[in-house]
Design brief:
Oligomer: single chain
Number of strands: 0
Order of helices and strands: HHHHHH
Structural class: mainly alpha
Shape: elongated
């Protein structure tokens, strides 16, 4: 097994971040055109919220991608540096990425909170398992 494979899920997480960025940007451009807003108008938070109502979910999701996923990036580096890469870590990191893609899809489209929350909770649990296993391996 190639130990550097532990970084592939991180590459896909970074790709998801860029995908959501482009989706958000397109939504924001549409909002600017729809409201015929001047760029300086966006300096006013109230007017900005009114103009970007259609892209608010993708903006929130974009922010989310700089929160919990950071723990995946850090864990991947630690797992690699400590030579702990194995099939279980690879499976868990890929599962985390798949869940985050599903979460982003729901958040940026229909935003069904019931489903989004379940998928988010699942991803948090997977990440927790990664960290608990890593902690146990470091301590023991």
């Amino acid at each position: 097994m190639n130990a550097t494979n532990i970084f592939l899920p991180s590459v896909f997480m970074a790709a998801l971040t860029y995908i959501v960025l482009v989706y958000m940007f397109r939504g924001r451009l549409a909002g600017i055109k729809k409201h015929q807003a001047r760029i300086q108008t966006l300096a006013d938070p109230v007017k900005e919220a009114q103009i970007f109502t259609d892209s608010a979910n993708s903006a929130d999701n974009f922010e989310n991608l700089f929160e919990m996923p950071v723990l995946l990036y850090v864990a991947s580096v630690i797992i690699y540096v400590l030579s702990k890469v194995d099939a279980l870590y690879l499976g868990l990191t890929w599962l985390y990425v798949i869940l985050r893609y599903a979460h982003s899809y729901i958040h940026c489209t229909n935003n069904r909170v019931k489903y989004r929350f379940r998928i988010f909770a699942g991803s948090v649990i997977v990440l927790f398992i990664i960290w608990m296993r890593l902690a146990a391996q470091i301590i023991l």
